[in-house]
Amino acid sequence: MPLKEKLSAVRRTAKEKSPASLASMTVNFFSALVKIVAGALGSSFYVIVNGLYSFAVGGAKATYFFSKKRASLHEEKRRKYLLLCGILTAATLLYLVYTLRLFFHGSSYGKAFAYFLEKYGTIFGVTLATVAFAELGFAIAGLVSSNREGDLLKNGLKCVNLASSFIAIALTQVALLTLNNEADMTFYNAVGGTVFGSACLLICAYMLFKYFRAAKNDAAPPADQKP
Fold first, then answer.
1. Residue 226 gets which letter from DSSP?
2. Cα 177 off chain centre by
3. Span between the terminal Cα atoms of the chain, in Å
4. d(C-alpha 222, C-alpha 119), whole Å
5. What is the structure's pLDDT at 28?
6. Is residue 121 exposed (0-12), middle (13-18) or buried (19+ Cβ within 10 Å)?
7. 1-41 pLDDT per residue, tens
8. DSSP of 169-194, one letter per residue?
9. CA 162 to chain centre
10. Radius of gyration (C-alpha) of the chain in whole angstroms
């Protein structure tokens, strides 16, 4: 399918299903680009890794949009749900590998990034914290709502949102600790990143549990056909 037709399909599906989530996906891709460029200019590989995570989250949301309209069968929904889980797991493992590396080598930010925080730190830190915790609140509410509705794909999207909010909080910690301390806070940033990255990994495990439970329920015979 040509790129133009694919983009049109995404817009149609998003309009029918979830305009707010389309905006969220667009923000993720834009945020990823900004973080990767800022990390490269600021000599901060940690920010680049965060950008790659945001890009993966955007990719997972794009997968949701492409799948939502076409996945009418339970089996197809499960496959797409598993794909969402796979994307999130791969991104989380990459994030955790880099975060654990900080315990032994490297820094969570470069000199250029530290200079930026010294100059714009208060505004930047408050903005990051506000967005991260707002995203966390919306993600939790969305996850609870999707569980009540029993929509497997929507549940996957909300799990992705929740994981994204955890990584945003970890980045907020880096900014605030760097802003308020002259000493190198890499160890504490590594601890925070590991905690929130592990929380994301637990979300991936939860998604796998949901996947296998859905597969088991779909494979079970209807109640009126049981012996």
1. -
2. 22
3. 47
4. 64
5. 81
6. middle
7. 555 554 455 455 444 445 666 677 787 888 888 888 877 77
8. HHHHHHHHHHHH-SS--HHHHHHHHH
9. 7
10. 19
Cα–Cα distances (Å) from 149 to 73, 135, 179, in that order, read: 17, 21, 43
**Residues listed for the chain:** 227
Burial of 112 (0-12, 13-18, 19+ CB in 10 A): middle
How far apart are alpha carbons 207 and 204 in whole angstroms? 5
- What the block records as the tokens of 37 is 């460029």
SS3 2: coil
Which tens digit of pLDDT belongs to each residue from 140-188?
888 888 888 878 888 898 999 999 999 989 888 887 877 766 677 788 8
CB 171 within 8 A of CB 54: no
Q: Which amino acid is at 56?
A: A
Contact 65, 13 (CB under 8 A): yes
The residue with tokens 């980045």 is 171
> Residue 10 and residue 19: Cα distance in Å, rounded?
11
* Sign of the C-alpha dihedral computed for residues 84, 163, 133 and 172 taken in this order: negative
Task: Please tell me the predicted confidence (pLDDT) of residue 97.
Answer: 92
Q: Return d(Cα 83, Cα 73) in angstroms, integer.
A: 16
Amino acid at 53: Y
pTM across the whole model? 0.79
